[in-house]
Design brief:
The protein has about 150 residues and is of the alpha+beta class. The chain has helices at about 5-15, 50-60, 70-90, 95-110, 115-120, and strands at about 25-30, 35-40, 45-50, 60-70, 130-140. It has one domain (about 5-140). The chain contains 5 helices and 5 strands; from the N terminus they run H-E-E-E-H-E-H-H-H-E.
Length: about 150
């Protein structure tokens, strides 16, 4: 949801009453590790942390049922950021991007799920953007508690 917080809450508050009891809303969102990050210019976007999204959903009358990491997206971002770091450090005439790209791809593909744990193990803030799937439903008097088992990135 690339809208500012007030607009997101307003939009979701308008949609929530249209849900029948038991209806679920799947939501896939790009996230950042902490807080909210806004992009300006030709590509405007607002990225929120998992906690910030949970707060927005709760204020909108929605309950978070489940949160799951989108591992393929995170691997994609790890690969893209690794190549960007390579290009920033290595002179362009010796970058051999076709070879390095294949090595990065093979390492990520063959090393999953262990490779996804490396940034956390080395306390590296990598990748910058992640993606999570949220499963939501309208809050009713019988299901008023927010999901407490949210998976929060380190």
């Amino acid at each position: 949801m690339y809208l500012n917080e007030c607009d997101v809450v307003e939009l979701l508050r308008r949609v929530t009453p249209l849900l029948s009891q038991g209806d679920m809303v799947p939501c896939r969102e790009s996230t950042v590790r902490n807080g909210t990050h806004s992009r300006q210019g030709s590509y405007q976007a607002v990225y929120r942390s998992v906690q910030d999204y949970s707060s927005v959903f709760e204020r909108s009358g929605l309950e978070v049922i489940q949160v799951e990491t989108n591992h393929p997206y995170i691997l994609l971002k790890l690969g893209c950021e690794a190549i960007d770091k390579w290009k920033a450090v290595v002179p362009s005439n010796v970058q051999v991007l076709p070879l390095v790209g294949r090595l990065v791809y093979s390492g990520l593909r063959n090393g999953f799920p262990w490779i996804a744990r490396l940034p956390v193990a080395f306390v590296v803030r990598f990748p910058k953007l992640t993606k999570y799937h949220f499963l939501l439903r309208a809050r009713t008097p019988t299901n008023t508690s927010i999901h407490n088992g949210l998976e929060v990135p380190a």
